[in-house]
Design goal:
The chain is mostly beta strands and about 80 residues long. The protein has a single domain, classed as gp9 (Jelly Rolls), CATH 2.60.120. It has 1 helix and 7 strands. The strands form 2 sheets. A 4-stranded mixed β-sheet has the order 2-6-7-4. A 3-stranded mixed β-sheet has the order 1-3-5, with no helix packed on it. A hairpin with a 4-residue loop joins strand 6 and strand 7. The relative contact order is 0.29.
Length: about 80
């Protein structure tokens, strides 16, 4: 079971894009609806990027982040509702 931000901020580190391979999908969602009070912070592994950034933060109630691995050095953002 994944942690929820219902009482605290949740910090998550992505797996290496090279390790999971191209096309690997990840979806993060604030199902608890507490974003803005208790955020979800998604951080890159090593030198990977997340849509050109080093991290993304879901700080909106019911916000989400949908990612796809490029298989080498980063994660592309398919869709996001962060703040």
């Amino acid at each position: 079971m994944l942690p929820t931000p219902s009482s605290n901020q949740v910090d998550l580190t992505l797996p290496s894009a090279a390790t999971v391979g191209p096309g690997f999908l990840l979806y993060f969602n604030d199902f608890s609806g507490t974003g803005g009070t208790n955020d979800i912070v998604i951080t890159r592994d090593g030198t990977d990027t997340i849509g050109g950034a080093t991290s993304k933060t879901i700080s909106m109630p019911n916000g989400y982040l949908w990612l796809i691995s490029n298989g080498t050095n980063g994660w592309g953002v398919i869709s996001e509702l962060l703040s």
